[in-house]
Design brief:
With about 325 residues, this protein is α+β, with helices and mostly antiparallel strands. Helices cover about 45% and strands about 25% of the residues. It is built from five helices and 13 strands.
Length: about 325
């Protein structure tokens, strides 16, 4: 009788121990982490591949380097064009050289001397024409003499007009040299400098893009290229996982959802056992779904559940992507 009583007590204690506490729930799921697919902005031949699968890298660490020869030449060409544009601006701002102005003034003075000589010749030709015209009217001269004088007068007038045009042109050149470049010309030169500077920045950016660095700290989970391979711009080269900030997506039955809160504590357990890893509930799905087939038993897979995310600090790298885990979630009082 005593043995039977003891056996009954053990059965009751075992049954009580197998029931989960009423103030917490245990849910199954798997580990996830942020994955970044790294790709260089430019294309080219890989001349250095600094990582392999499984490497842990810090933020800013070198992943790969492309052949920089062509982008380097583009930078040098762009800088040469920028220097040329800057020299053109300085030339416009400096204005004409004193010797150029002196030469233009000399040419203008020579044109005025020619004009004075042409006018003197025209005056002489007009006087001859008037004299021969008077002689012809007095029947003291011939018509041919009068016509020859008229021809010389007309030629002299054309020479005066040509000389006046040369004087105006020479004066305009001198005035232009003294005034220097127009404001519009200087503005255009500055615009060419700005365009050249933008071309330099673009070429330097292309040169910088030949080096691919890690945007975050993490573990290289996959390399997609090989040393010496030619890759296209923005073609994925490696996959980096941020395991230090992993999380577990677990699936909780609908009756327990009203008793869970964002930012509440939770504990993650792996199949290896141990004390567990502390975490925080960072997301509760607003939409119900069926339990994933790889999480629960066939009976429980037919139940509607909600996905709950538990974020953890995984600096020691215990949790891996895809690892099955269980989460213990304290239940809060029903409001």
């Amino acid at each position: 009788m005593k043995v039977a009583l003891t056996f009954g007590i053990l059965i009751v204690l075992t049954a009580c121990a197998s029931e989960p506490p009423a103030n917490e729930i245990r849910a199954s799921g798997h580990v996830e982490a942020t994955e970044v697919r790294l790709a260089p902005e430019t294309g080219g031949r890989i001349v250095e591949l600094a990582v392999k699968e499984g490497d842990t890298v810090e933020q800013g660490a070198l992943i790969l380097r492309l052949d920089p020869r062509t982008p380097t030449l583009a930078v040098e060409r762009a800088k040469a064009e920028q220097r040329h544009a800057e020299a053109q601006l300085r030339l416009l701002q400096a204005g004409a050289r004193p010797e150029d102005i002196a030469q233009a003034q000399a040419q203008a003075q020579a044109a005025r001397d020619d004009l004075a000589a042409a006018r003197a010749e025209l005056a002489s030709a007009e006087a001859d024409f008037e004299r021969f015209e008077a002689l012809l009217e007095a029947n003291a001269g011939s018509r041919k003499q009068r016509d020859d004088a008229a021809t010389r007068r007309d030629v002299a007038r054309e020479r005066v007009q040509a000389a006046e045009s040369r004087v105006r042109a020479a004066d305009q050149v001198t005035a232009r040299l003294r005034a220097g470049a127009r404001a519009e010309e200087i503005e255009a030169a500055r615009a060419r400098i700005a365009a050249a500077a933008a071309a330099v920045a673009t070429a330097e950016e292309a040169l910088n893009d030949t080096t691919l660095r890690a945007p975050i700290a993490g573990v290289v989970t996959e390399t997609l290229v090989s040393l010496g391979e030619v890759i296209a711009p923005r073609a994925p080269a490696a996959v980096l996982a941020d395991l230090a900030h992993a999380w577990a997506d677990v699936f909780v039955a609908e009756p327990a959802i009203p008793r869970l809160r964002l930012n509440q504590p939770a504990t993650i357990f792996t199949d290896a056992g141990g004390a567990g890893i502390s975490g925080t509930v960072s997301y509760i799905s607003p939409k119900a779904e069926f339990t994933p087939r790889n999480v629960q038993t066939a009976e429980e897979r037919s139940k509607l559940v909600y996905r709950v995310r538990v974020s953890v600090q995984n600096d020691d790298g215990v949790l891996k992507q895809g690892m099955p885990v269980e989460a213990v979630l304290p239940l809060q009082p029903v409001p």
